[in-house]
Amino acid sequence: MSDLHTGTLTQLAASLRARKFSSVELVSGLLTRIEGAQGTLNAFISVTREQALGAAAAADRVLAAGGAGALTGVPIAHKDIFCTQGVRTTCGSHMLENFVSPYDATVVAKLKTAGAVMLGKTNMDEFAMGSSNENSYFGPVRNPWNPKLVPGGSSGGSAAAVAARLVSGATGTDTGGSIRQPAALCGITGLKPTYGRVSRYGMIAFASSLDQAGVLTASAADAALMLREMAGFDANDSTSVDAPVPDYVAALEQPLAGLRIGLLQEFFDQGLDPQNERRVREALKVYEQLGAKLTSVSLPNLPLSVPVYYVVAPAECSSNLARFDGVRFGHRCENPRDLTDLYRRSRGEGFGAEVKRRIMTGTYVLSAGYYDAYYLKAQRVRQLISADFTRAFQDVDVLMGPTTPTPAFAIGAKTSDPITMYLNDIYTIGANLAGLPAVSIPCGFVRDLPVGLQIVGPHFSEARILAAAHALQRATDWHTRLPPGYA
Amino acid sequence: MSLTREQIASIAALARLELTAAEIPVYQETLSRIVDFIGALERAPTAGVAPMAHPLPGLSQRLRPDVVTEVDRHEEYQPNAPQVAAGLYLVPKVIE
Question: Which of A275, A286, A321, A440 is geometrically suited to a Cys-Cys bond with A180, CB 3.0 to 4.6 A?
């Protein structure tokens, strides 16, 4: 029973249905593993031991009765940005340190309905703002491949937890790369679906035109399984798209031969670590051997994606985070003199440095006299970037390139300069601006650290990009490598 | 472009954020750099390009019928509030 943690979600679901072991056995083993790794990795903000064991026992009764759903008894974790009824939801912030949600996010409810058992809430950059998980009020998460390094962010806790196989699948959110970048830096699979594919209801808002919920898993097949249960229309989210959810699992085996792959020229720029580039090109070679056709594609406006993002995302965040006013929920300062003092000190004390920086950036670009120059201008350039993608997808089926410029970097290495940190997301932000689905999968190692290959597809092409990712994972074994000490 | 101390104080006031004396120069430096960085957009040729209003082409915000769907659940919500009395949220006196 000691190697149960290495099972993928797909394998665990099948083994539980075959009654090879019970959900209680599986969950107990993983809880011990989580508690053992917490001191080193700090991947969790809350571990919900009692609820998890209760849910596992209930799942075992369902399994015994033969009524199992797709994920009955299978352990997962939720990024602490998703509201969970009766369980603290902090969003990595002092502001929400003691917030207990009165309801479940739609994603949480759907995975519960599918039978998944939540083991806890994972650590994250405060309000999902960060690329290294160093912005959490609950302390940084450490990379399982080397605890001196960052796991990436903002879904760094989910990424570290899955990489160390503390759990085989976890939810995440991706506003500018927050699923794909940590997935790449931790050597796992991370999928950001099309904007509107998965409900944002109960997912604490950062930048509402960019935020999308997705998954961090050990394989593309697992991402397909989890997404199938999470996706779908939700009347509670006005941006949720009412389109049927394909069976992503059944679509995994679609043939790769003839797939037209566009190599994103702008991603192979001077910022890309040459060794990182080599690993990505080796993976592309595998695709060629599998029968795919490679062509080079240029998206001329893509290099402006980071500056566009750092206007649009802070603008939306300054508006979304206005709700944290110290009145209805969240932190309140001591002895406020008047209402303005209550707002200002509650927010000044409750938010961390990067969150305040983004709120102020957003306030500035939306303020009188600057709105046209920054916000409207950024939304126009965003239109150009989106049009670049649309044009590219007339000639190719998917776009590929690196997920990040370099492998994981040292904790503290980029904290003094926000721009250096922001540039970590240079290859991931484009998909968010255009609302496109994208997945990062492991494609090798540089200096013993994992490297990610990114696959971007047209809107609602999750089945296709997951099938492409799955094809590489059938031909290589990068996704099965585990960090030393967590095998 | 360099933002002044006064500009930072004014942005913080608009955002209802109290900054400590030590925070102001940090934000002065980093926000100035961010403003320079996003200034790169200025050079992009966008004449005749409409601002993007929705991440999915051709879609706009869905509206629902204008009917009440919420029920009163204040008893479930208020345990998260810093200060309540008799079902009401308490704040410092606003009107003298």
Answer: A440
